[in-house]
What does this fold into?
Amino acid sequence: MPLLELHRVTKRFGGIVAVDNVSLEIDEGDAIGIVGPNGSGKTTLYNLISGVYFPDNGRIIFDGKDITFLPAHERTPLGLARTFQIPRPFGSASVRENVAIGAMFGRAKLDVESALDIADHYLSIVGIEKLAEKEAKLLTPLEKRFMELARALAMKPKLLLLDEVMAGMNPADVDRIIEVIRRVKDEERIAVVSMVEHLMHAITRFAERVVVMHQGKKLVEGKTLDVLNDPRVVEIYLGKRVV
Ligand SMILES: Nc1ncnc2c1ncn2[C@@H]1O[C@H](COP(=O)(O)OP(=O)(O)OP(=O)(O)O)[C@@H](O)[C@H]1O
Ligand SMILES: [Mg+2]
It folds into this structure.
């Protein structure tokens, strides 16, 4: 049984069909990249999976449960976590506390001490243990994104949706994120879906499968290198070779 199944999902905004009859399956431990030109429906697809919007048609099944119309906050405890492009942490709490709150949110009946231990574990996996005692509001936007990743991982999700987590990062930071994704995928079997708009070269290094969106539809899906060299994909990226 796949971890996540989208069955012919459609979302309209007025006359615009933002997501058009998309079906998709994601398995435990998958590493998937979602790409596509501006306005192709990537963010809407994320919003449907995470429960920000409900579809007009179609069904979404997560871990065997129909979540099509389940509110976002009820999806998180099922094991569905996402990061946001603009994180909103608890500003006056420390980085460690913010990540511990994530751990407590994702697991029932976790005591504070254990949550803080889990926080320390993920701070070190993400490589921001030095920031542990800092107030979250004092972090740079980039540091906040690393904290956001640690917080999402501490929830112990089965599926993690990353929203452009690598955008604006230098190559060393991108390497670190890719290393983290690989590690949690292999060690904890977390399925990771990453939306990568501006870093096509990074996608070949962590995604095993790529889904290309175009005008709301799933244009192509398959193994990363095959997809990025598919003539239809090359064409929508202005006739340039993607990798
Ligand atoms: N809340 C909304 N209200 C109206 N139209 C919307 C809304 N959200 C998205 N759209 C429209 O749906 C289509 C798909 O948008 P979406 O944001 O999902 O694309 P995207 O692939 O994430 O684009 P980008 O690369 O620019 O982030 C676009 O035509 C967009 O204008
Ligand atoms: Mg978008």
